[in-house]
Amino acid sequence: EQNARSMITTTQDRAAIDKAVYWLSQGEAIGMPTETVYGLAANALDASAVAKIFAAKNRPQDNPLIVHVSSLSMLESILPNGKIPDVYLPIIKRCWPGPLTIILPTSAKIPATVTCDQPTVAVRFPAHPVARALIEACGFPLAAPSANSSGKPSPTLASHVFHDLNNKIPLILDGGACTVGVESTVLDGLRNPPAILRPGGATYETLQQLKGMEQLQVYRKHFVDQALELAPTTPGMKYRHYSPEAMVILVEEEEVAMAYGNSSNYNSNNHKDTQQPSFDTVWRNELTQLLDNGIGIQKVGILTIVPDGGSMEWRETTTKDGIEYVSLQMGRQGHPDEVARGMFKGLREMDTIAVDVIFVQGVSESNEGMAVMNRLRKAATKTIII
Ligand code: TXA
Ligand code: MG
């Protein structure tokens, strides 16, 4: 029944999918694996089912959802004239199924609760075999935001969904660890020039090479005010996101911050004439300052990148002067796909350990690094430029 404890079920067998189809057909919301992050799925054509998504994750009512399909004909069935705009054809060919969401004109079939009354609908064809099998078996598209409580880091394991939504949904399908680890890229190809509204698993580098995408823009932070005026529900621009309980201090390199175009808003230390300090030096200095200011800190989390040639040690713990230091590694330098996979997991793990502060090492914005930095900047309480 509706108040049952959420069940985690593995997807080895058909029975799990059948159970999920049962709940979804009843108008319930359930946890679903995708290759990006876990989704909280409900029948996208049923307004009351969609309302349960907003309730379960306590999502602001004006943040629209992504509709997930398992075929192009399912997509066509929800479009105004059954026609996919030409601009998307090369993109679909290259990126679907996969971590890319596209903005399309909506139709009367899609409830206003999905689109939040916008004239457009966001659609994705996920690659995860369980998601595909599930949507296919349902025969209707699934609206699904990330399956975290609103504001928390996105879930990349079924246990993360259980942690946030246990008792709020009847079922979580366990499809293993998400292989991409960050949400899909949201691409608006209807505007001219086309724009990435949210960087994600499909990279700028990949998209920009495609026909019609030569002028592809990326929405940056300095566009926020203008963007909010144009579209109050543009992805992730209005609400604080991805934040663990602990204070998050992001350390990013000046070149990365400059390229991002927003460095003037930060308290940049000027190291032009001296050597750039290491991440290690910077967080230790910052910690000393926090302690000097009387901030009570017993546990310190450090989320790092494995340096070139180093090896992955998922976790290292040391204690010194009564403070416990836990260091987790997100991925190897030069492997932004690995960092993307490890980032949300690392942020969540820090909450499990209950650290008081998390120092995070930034990465370059190339490839999946753009999505990683977008999420880390949103999670950060403070950013230090080195
Ligand atoms: O990878 C993903 O995209 C995951 C998995 C579950 O598919 N889903 C996901 O959903 O990240 P969510 O709700 O956490 O993020 C959806 C983003 C939001 O930032 C929302 O503002 C944007 O997509 N969005 C949805 N509909 C839109 C629309 N019509 N126009 C512009 N942005 C839209
Ligand atoms: Mg989300």
Describe the overall structure:
This protein folds into two domains: 7-230, DHBP synthase (Alpha-Beta Complex), CATH 3.90.870.10; 247-385, Rossmann fold (3-Layer(aba) Sandwich), CATH 3.40.50.11030. With 386 residues, it is α/β, with parallel strands linked by helices. It is built from 13 helices and 17 strands. It has helices at 14-25, 47-57, 72-78, 89-95, 112-115, 129-138, 158-165, 204-208, 224-230, 254-260, 279-292, 336-353, 369-379, and strands at 7-10, 30-32, 39-43, 66-68, 100-105, 120-124, 142-143, 171-174, 185-188, 195-198, 217-218, 247-252, 299-306, 315-320, 323-332, 357-361, 382-385. Bound molecules: threonylcarbamoyladenylate and magnesium ion.
Fold blueprint:
Blueprint: E1 7-10, H1 14-25, E2 30-32, E3 39-43, H2 47-57, E4 66-68, H3 72-78, H4 89-95, E5 100-105, H5 112-115, E6 120-124, H6 129-138, E7 142-143, H7 158-165, E8 171-174, E9 185-188, E10 195-198, H8 204-208, E11 217-218, H9 224-230, E12 247-252, H10 254-260, H11 279-292, E13 299-306, E14 315-320, E15 323-332, H12 336-353, E16 357-361, H13 369-379, E17 382-385
Parallel strand pairs: 1-8, 4-6, 5-9, 10-11, 12-16, 12-17, 13-15, 13-16
Antiparallel strand pairs: 2-3, 3-7, 4-7, 5-6, 9-10, 14-15
Helix pairs in contact: 1-6
Threonylcarbamoyladenylate binds at residues 34, 36-37, 39, 63-66, 101, 103, 115, 118, 120-122, 124, 144-146, 183-184, 186, 197-198, 233-236.
Considering the chains and any ligands shown, give keywords for the structure.
386 residues; alpha/beta; DHBP synthase; Rossmann fold; 13 helices; globular; binds threonylcarbamoyladenylate
